[in-house]
Design goal:
heterodimer; A: alpha+beta; Leucine-rich Repeat Variant; TATA-Binding Protein; B: Beta-Lactamase; Immunoglobulin-like; 3 domains; Adaptor related protein complex 4 subunit beta 1 (chain A)
Amino acid sequence: MIWGFFSLDGTGQINQVMYRTTHENSLLSSAGKLFPASNDWIFQQDNAPYHTARAMSQGVDMSGLFSEMVKACATVDVVQKKLVYVFLCSYAALNPELSLLVINTLRKDCQDPNPMVRSLALRNMTNLRLPSLVEYVEQPLTAGLRDRAACVRRVAVLGWAKLHNLQPSSEIDAAVVNELYSLLRDPDPVVMVNCLRALEEILKDEGGVAINKPITHHLLNRLKECDIWGQCEVLRVLQRYRPQSEDELFDILSLLDASLVSPHPPVMAATLSLFLSLCSGQPAVNLAALERVRGPLLAACGSGSREMRFTALCHIQLLLRSIPGLMGAHYKRFFCGYAEPAYIKQRKMQVLVELVNDENVAMLLDELKGYCTDVNTDTAQAAISAIGRIGRSYSDRCLEILTGLLGLKQDHITSAVVQTMRDLVWVCPQCSDTVCFALEGCEETLQDSQGRQALLWLLGVYGERVSSAPYTLEVFIDGVRSEASLGVKMELLTATMRLFLCRPAETQDMLGRLLHYCIEEETDMCVRDQALLYYRLLHCGIEETRKVLQGRRSDPSLGVLIGRPAEPVSQWARSFNTLEPLRQGSIETESASRGSPEHTTFDPKPNADLSDTLDCSHIEKVHSDSDGRCLDSSADILASSVAAPLSLSLFPALSPEEFERLWLQQRALHAEQEEAEEEDFVWMEECVRCPTIPCCSPQSLQAAMQLVNIQTLAFTPPQTLPWRVYLYTHTCLDDSPHSTLILGELLYTGEEPQKAEVNKGSADGEVGVEGTEDEQARQGTEATADGGQETVKVTLRQQPRDDKALKGFMSILTTVLHTLSSEKA
Amino acid sequence: MISQVFILSSKGDHLIYKDFRGESGSDAVGVFYEKVTALTGDQPPVVMSHKDLHFVHVRQGGLYWVATTTADSSPFTIIEFLNRLAALVKDYCGSLSEKSVQMNFALIYELLDEVVDYGYIQTTSSDVLKNFIQTEAVSSRPFSLFDLSNVGLFGAETQQSKVAPSSAATRPIQSSREQGGKSEIFVDVIERMSVVIGSNGMLMKADVEGEIRVKCYLPNCSEMRIGLNEEFSIGKSQLRGYGAAVRVDEVSFHQMVRLDEFDSHRILRLCPSQGEQTVMQYQLSDDLPSAPPFRLFPTIERDSGGRLLMYLKLRCDLPPKSAAINVAATIPIPKGSLSLSQELSSPDQSAELKPQSRAVVWKIPRFTGGTQLSALFKLEVPGLSSASLLEVGPVGLSFELPKLTATGVQIRFLRLSPVQPGPSQRWVRYVTHSDSYTIRI
C-alpha cells in the first residue's frame, strides 16, 4: 500500500494536502502496525528518506521511523546520507539510545577519503546534541582540527564550540584552546573566522577571545581575504580592542577606511560600529566617520530589498540624532514611493521632519500633503502628525494644510488633524486663533476617542474664542450616557468646568446636568471622583476653582531654540547595528499624543499650580542638605546678600511671545542709553563663575530652576556656543506688597571650556559684577579680573525696579548655578 | 548569529525549517505566523519579538524567509543573508515560488547545511558551494517547445535568432553540468526610476538606481570583459569623449571586479562565478539626460449630476522606436466611490475600480513612444464635495521600459576569454523599471 502511494507521489499526481494527510493517517499508522509484525519492512530502500525528510520539514511528526532511518544512513549515496542526517539530527533528542547506533557509522565516515564525507560526518556528529555522545566525538574532532581539507577544519573548529555548549560546566581542555588560537593563523580565512567564533563561545566566561595587539593586527591584515560575513565577524570581535597609542589608533582607522565605504551594508555597518567604539574618546573622528558613511547608507536606502531599505532608514535616524544636518541636501531621497510598505513610509516621514529647513519646507510640505490621503490610515495619520511637527517652526503653512484636510470630512483624518492641532497649540500658542476658527463643525466627523479627547481639550482651554463651544459640549453631554470611553468622559468634565469659568451663563445648566449624571449615575469611580472633586471645588468659590483649573495653556519650556539638540554619539553608539533601532517601540513616541498635553510634560513639582510660592530660606536648606560640598560657599553668599526674606513665584505665567516683546523692546531702549531713572525697570549684567553649566542637560537645569520657582523659557542645546538660556520669575519681598518681574538671560561664550577642570576647585561663589547702572555698581563684591572665560554672563531685567529683590534673586540664581556645576564636577 | 531559519508560504505552510543551535523550541514557526496574522496590514514589520526570540524576515517570491536571532546581532547582516539565501535558492532552483521551494526542499536543506553552521554564516559564494551541492534541482516547469515560441523578452517582439526567451534565465544553474544545458551568459543592465512630477508639470525629483547583473551558466569561464560606454563619467566634474555624456553620481563595484582598465577604457574585468551576481551599482540623482518618460495632463471636475469627472491625457515621451509595456496608472479617488464608467482610447486598455485600495487602475499593455492616450472616467461618489477633490491624486505609474536605460548606460562589448569551446551564447539585456513614478495632480 505504501509502495503504491510513493510511486503516486513520484509522478506528482496528488496535491500537497492529500499527501500530508495520507502520510499522517496511513503511513504512520501502518508503519506502526507493520513494525512489530515484520522486521524486514523495507523502508530504507530506494528514495524513501527523501519522502520522510519532506514530511518532516512540513511539520509532520516522523519520530516513529527513527530506527529505520538509523539503518538507512549506512548508504553510500551522499545525497541520501545528507537527508538521513537531517532527519536524525531533528529527532536524536527523542531517541538517545538509538542514536548511539549512528555514532559508529559516523565515526567510520570520518575516516572516509572524500573530504566532503568527512566534514559531513563530523558536522552531524556534533549536531546530534546528545551529551551522552561527547566521549565518542572528542577524538574525531581533535583529528579534524589537523585535517588536510579546509572544509573539515571549519567544521571541527565550530564542533568544539558545540561540544562546549553541550556541557557548559565541564572544563574544556587547555590544549584545545591553544590549538584553536594557533588555528587563527590557518591559511583558510573561514577557519580563522570560525576559530574566533568558537573561542568567543568557549571562553565566554572569561570575556571572550583575547584581543591583544598581535592578534588585532593579524586579523586586520587578513580582513581582505574574508568574505563579507567573515569581515563582519572580525570587525565585531575587534570592538573590544583598545589601541595603546593614538598613532596605532590612526593606523587602524586608515586600514579600515576602505571597508567604511564598502558597498555591502553589513560591512559598512560593522566598520562604523568598530569606529565608534575605537574612537569613543574622540568625538571629532566619530563625526567624520558618520559623514563618510553617508553615501553608502543612502545607497542602502535605495536598495532593491525593502527590508534593507528599512534597516538603513532606521540607522539613518540614529545618525541624525547626532548630526541633524547630515542628510539635509538629500531630503528628496526620503520621499516615499507610492508602492512602499507602510513601515517604510512612516520612517521616511520621521526623517523628513528632521530635515526641514527654509529652502525645502515648501517642497516637503507639498510632498507630505500627498501622503495625508493615503489609503493606509496609519500612514495618513503619521503624515498629518509630521506636518504638525513641522508646524512648530512653520506654523502658518502647516495650519493651512491641516485646515484644508478638515474639509475632507473623513473620520480618521479629522481625528488626526485635531490631535495634531492640540499638540501644536500646546507648543505654539500663537496658532490658537487659526485653530479655534478651524474647529467649528468638525465634531460631526470625529469618531474615535483620541480625536474627541483632543477636541474637548481644545474647547475647554480656548472655549471663549470658539463661539459654538457650548453647543458642541452640549451634544457631548447629552450623549454621555452612551459614551464608552473613560478618557472622553474625564476630558468632558474638565472641559465643561473650564468653559463654565469663562462663559458661565451658557454653560451653567449643562454643567449641572453633567455633574449630576457623573455623581449619581456613573459607575466608573475615576469619573465619579473627578466630578465630586469639581463639585466641592465649586463650593469653595469661583476664585479657588479658577486657580485650580486654569493652568497652563502652553508648554512652559519652549524646548530648544534651534532644532533638536545634537546628542553625543555615545548615546546611541551601543545600539547601532543591533535590532534595537528597528523595533516598533523605538519609534519616538510623541509624548503629547496621548491624553492632554499638560499631563505628560516634564514637571518636577506636580502641584506647582496650587502652591506657587516657595520660601527662599527653605530652598537654602534643601540645597545645603543635598550637597554638602557647596554648603559653605552658598551659605556665605546667602548670608551676605539676602537681607530680607524673598519669595519667588511663577504666577502669573508669562508667555514666550510676551517675554520676547518685553525683552527686545527694553533691550533697544537700553541700548540707546536713555535716562534710566525715568524708566520703571533696571538692567543688570553680572558674571557668575560656574564652568560646567553649559555642559549640563537642559532637563536638569530646568528642574533645578523650577525647584526655586524660576521658569526657563528657552535654551540652546548643550555643548553649543554661544550657549544661552532665557528665564523669568516674579519676586515679592515679604515687607513690600508689590511684586516685580525679572527676565534673565544666561550667556556662555567660553573659548576654553577645557580649562574648566583646572578651575573647578575655585569655582565657588565669586560673583563678579559689572554694574551698567551706577546704582548697581555698589553691589559688586569682587570684580574679578579673569571674568569672561569660564563665567556665565547673566543679564537681568527687572520691572518695576526693586534693588533689594534683584539682589536676592541674583543670589538665589548664583546658588542654583553653583550647585549644578558642583554636581557636574 | 542565527538560531533558526525557516521558510513559510504566504498561507503559513512550513516549507523549510532548520534549527542551528537548538536553543529555542520548534514552536517558533507557529509563534511567528501567529504574529504575522495578528496584524491588520499585510506588511508585518521586519523585526518582531516574542519574549527573547527575535524574528527577522524578508519577503521574496511571495514567501517569508525568517531567521530567529539574538537582540544584539546585526540587522544588516541578517537581512543581507536572507536576501542572499533567497538568491541562492533562486540560482539553484531556477525560480522562486512556493512550488519550486517545495519540490527542491532536499536541495535547500543541503544548501542551508553548507551555508550556515551552528548559526554562523560560512559561505554564500556559489563557486565554493558548487563543490558541495549534490542534489539535482527539480525544475517546476517542464521544458516545452511552447515556451520558446513567440513569448519575447519582456514582451518584446521576437526575432528568434536574436532574442532569448524570457524564461532562459530562470533555469537552475546546475543543470548546465549534466543535462547539457546551453552555456550562456546574461548581462543585464537594470535601472529603477523614482520620479516625482509636481502638479505644474515640473520635475521635482528624479533618481535612478542602476545595476549591472551577470548571470552565468558557463561551467568554466576564466575572464570576462565588459565594456561600457566610452563617455561614461562619474560625478559632476568629469566629462569624457565627444558624444553626449553618460553621467552617474556614484558607482560601486563588486569586490571581484578588477578596474585596471576602467579609468582608461571603461572596461570591467571579472571572472564570473556561476549564478547571479551584481557586478556594479550606480546612482544618479536629479539630472536625467532625457525628459521623464511620462507626462500626465489631468482635468478633474464635478459635473452637474454630482459625479466626478476625470479626464486624463497621458503622454509617452520615449523615442518613437521604443515603447513602454505593462503600464499601470493608479489614480487614488475619493472615499466611498461607488461605480466607474470609462471611455478609453483603444480596446487593449482597461480600467478598473478598486474599492479596497480606493483607486482606479488604468492599464495599458503597450505604449509606444511619442504617442498620447486619453481616458475619461466618471465616478459616482455620494456626497461629493469640492474638498473631496483633494483626495484625487497623486497618480502612481508603474511600467517597464525594455531595451532602454534612463541614464544611457550601455554595454559596448562583452568578451569571454578563453574563447568558449562549442556554442556559447552571450546576451545583453536592458530594462528600466519604475520604482516609484508619482505625478501630483
